[in-house]
Amino acid sequence: MWGANCVGAHLHWANLSRVSAFSVNFSSADLAHAQFNAAGLVGANFTNAILTDANFAGASFLTANMQNAHCLRTDFNGANIAGVDFSGADLAYANLKGVTDWSNIYSLKSANIYSVTNAPDGFLEWATNRMGAIIYKSVDAWSVTE
Q1: CB-based contact 104:79 (threshold 8 Å)
Q2: Average pLDDT for consecutive 10-residue bins of the chain (146 residues)?
């Protein structure tokens, strides 16, 4: 699935484990309860997507790759994000309420965590001081009203 357009798709409970979805556009898609174990999601667009209770965790060698993903205003409410590689991802305004196993994220190097909402206690300090996340108002975030 290279560059596929899944804008606004309703994919509740979808099993996207081991899928290669590079640069796929999932903006405004509803992916509640979806499985993303070992998914290749490099450069995917999850802007305004619903990932409530989604599962990205897997065995240590079966983690989701979301490098350079666009997750502006993405709803990760209750998602298991253990092992995810968010290197270079834009997580500005993402909802992190109830995310589980966040301290086992693989990487946040250069990931933008500007104005994430409902971050778990200790997340922002851990992400910036230990995991290399950065906080900046990205070009896409300029259109978001604070």
Answers
A1: no
A2: 84 94 94 95 96 85 87 97 95 97 95 97 97 85 52
